[in-house]
């Protein structure tokens, strides 16, 4: 029996956090939610997460800034970035920073699950 992946969800909107949390838990994932990048980085969960799903536009530290910071520290944790304000230049920055996937809000549950499958597969490859 395999251990479920730990997914960290970061969004300053509590309703978005709850919706993603409920979806992922219903699919068998262990989910940890955070209202900010600072809250995530201050937790022990930041080192044991299998994938981060983060909002691009959060106060203080954006999802892209968090991704950049974690990559600079040597983390290969897969990132899925989500945003309510899609912009091609932000999408390009996200992919250049190393995001596995970039989704515009609102997104379909199936789109998020496809991105998560890709991200977790990429994470498995980086640990081999």
UniProtKB/TrEMBL annotation:
<feature type="modified residue" description="4-aspartylphosphate">
    <location>
        <position position="55"/>
    </location>
</feature>
<dbReference type="InterPro" id="IPR011006">
    <property type="entry name" value="CheY-like_superfamily"/>
</dbReference>
<keyword id="KW-0597">Phosphoprotein</keyword>
<dbReference type="InterPro" id="IPR050595">
    <property type="entry name" value="Bact_response_regulator"/>
</dbReference>
<dbReference type="Pfam" id="PF00072">
    <property type="entry name" value="Response_reg"/>
</dbReference>
<dbReference type="InterPro" id="IPR001789">
    <property type="entry name" value="Sig_transdc_resp-reg_receiver"/>
</dbReference>
<dbReference type="GO" id="GO:0000160">
    <property type="term" value="P:phosphorelay signal transduction system"/>
</dbReference>
<protein>
    <submittedName>
        <fullName>Response regulator</fullName>
    </submittedName>
</protein>
<feature type="domain" description="Response regulatory">
    <location>
        <begin position="6"/>
        <end position="120"/>
    </location>
</feature>
């Amino acid at each position: 029996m395999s251990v479920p992946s730990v997914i960290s969800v970061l969004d300053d909107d509590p309703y978005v956090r709850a919706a993603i949390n409920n979806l992922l838990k219903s699919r068998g994932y262990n989910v940890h939610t955070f209202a900010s990048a600072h809250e995530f980085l201050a937790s022990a969960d930041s080192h044991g997460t299998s994938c981060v799903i983060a909002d691009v536009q959060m106060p203080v530290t954006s999802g892209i800034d968090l991704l950049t910071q974690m990559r600079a520290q040597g983390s290969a944790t897969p990132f899925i970035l989500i945003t309510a304000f899609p912009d091609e230049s932000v999408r390009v920055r996200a992919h250049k920073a190393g995001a596995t996937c970039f989704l515009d809000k609102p997104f379909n549950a199936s789109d998020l699950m496809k991105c998560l499958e890709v991200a977790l597969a990429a994470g498995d490859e980086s640990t081999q």
